[in-house]
Amino acid sequence: xxxxxxxxxxxxxxxxxxxxxxxxxxxxxxxxxxxxxxxxxxxxxxxxxxxxxxxxxxxxxxxxxxxxxxxxxxxxxxxxxxxxxxxxxxxxxxxxxxxx
Length: 100
Prior knowledge:
The chain folds into 2 domains: 5-44, no CATH class; 53-96, no CATH class. The protein contains 4 helices and 4 strands, in the order H-E-H-E-E-H-H-E. The chain has helices at 5-19, 33-36, 57-62, 68-86, and strands spanning 23-26, 41-44, 53-54, 95-96. The strands form 2 sheets. It has a two-stranded parallel sheet with strand order 1-2. A two-stranded parallel ribbon has the order 3-4.
């Protein structure tokens, strides 16, 4: 059985004609994705994946964090970076040093 362009196009067109109206709503914070999403029930999601080269990561990963304040500083620095990226103010590779 070989693939045929027109046959595939017809099958897709038929599927789209019978699919029904597509709903798009904003995603709520707590959601059961197994029951929430279908082919025609979609959710709007705004987010970002941030990849950053942390110049002193090996030290952070191998040393224990001295106290809760330093740990909170680390979390806050990552959070601030992610907010900058997600709001479009950061559009280039950034090298970050999170500890002294």
